[in-house]
Amino acid sequence: MTPILLTIALAGLLHIAQFVVASTMANMDVGPGYTTSPRDREPSRPMRKTTGRMLRAYDNNVEMFPFFAAAVLLIHLTEQPSTVTLWTAWIYLAARALYIPAYALGWQPWRSYIWLVAMVSVATLFIASLI
């Protein structure tokens, strides 16, 4: 596996870990009866604020991960990996890892800045694939 592809694998594992943590928290808050249901109704018990934040942080990762994976795959397939693209991919991964506690703990405005670092990293990878 190339070093640039390793970042996709690690981002995928981070995604899975984030899902497990958020799902476990939701299960503890509203119970397995609700979380295993088709969720046609609102839960009978409210979720903690932190659980809601963890679920929203996960949803945000669902939106961001495909862009990152596509950008890294473009770099790999066009055989354009470089020190810059590898560092950029690692910066994305670090930003996404930091984004989770930033969201959960309500770091304002830092959460938004961390998100921006990840988005700029993805944009940089796409631009690098065109050069």
TrEMBL record:
The chain crosses the membrane at residues 61-77, 84-106, 112-130. InterPro entries: MAPEG-like_dom_sf, Membr-assoc_MAPEG. It is found in: Membrane. Residues 1-22 form the signal peptide. Gene3D superfamilies: Membrane associated eicosanoid/glutathione metabolism-like domain (1.20.120.550). This is MAPEG family protein. It holds the Pfam family MAPEG. Keywords: Membrane, Signal, Transmembrane, Transmembrane helix. It comes from Pseudosulfitobacter koreensis. It comes from the Bacteria.
